[in-house]
Specification:
- By secondary structure, this protein is α/β, with parallel strands linked by helices.
- The protein is built from 4 helices and 3 strands, in the order βαβααβα.
- Strand 1, helix 1 and strand 2 form a beta-alpha-beta unit.
């Protein structure tokens, strides 16, 4: 089994455009967040032609039929924030407020 990955909107767009080697993810356990689906839907609504909107809608249907779509609830950012320090190492420097 490969990696466990949650794909973001940029990866979905690259998938739609054929800009990623799709086979590079074959061994991985993939999912997307519900908020990513919402962001991608915005791209469908803002497409410059009906054909492009239809292509994007088809791509999204394929993606959502093949991947788990994870709920994004109020507790998700709290959980992610709690896991962040242990999963990525030292914290980033604090932002200056002055």
């Amino acid at each position: 089994m490969g990696r466990r990955l949650i794909l973001d909107t940029n990866v979905l767009i690259a998938y739609e455009r054929g800009a990623i080697d799709r086979s590079s993810l074959d061994e991985d356990e993939l999912a997307i967040a519900a908020v990513t689906v919402a962001e991608y839907r915005v791209g469908i609504e803002l497409a410059d032609t009906p054909e492009r909107a239809a292509d994007r809608a088809r791509a999204l249907a394929i993606i959502t039929s093949a991947l788990d779509v994870l709920d994004y609830t109020f507790t998700t950012p709290r959980t992610t924030g709690a896991c962040w320090p242990t999963s990525v190492g030292p914290a980033l420097p604090a932002a200056r407020t002055t």
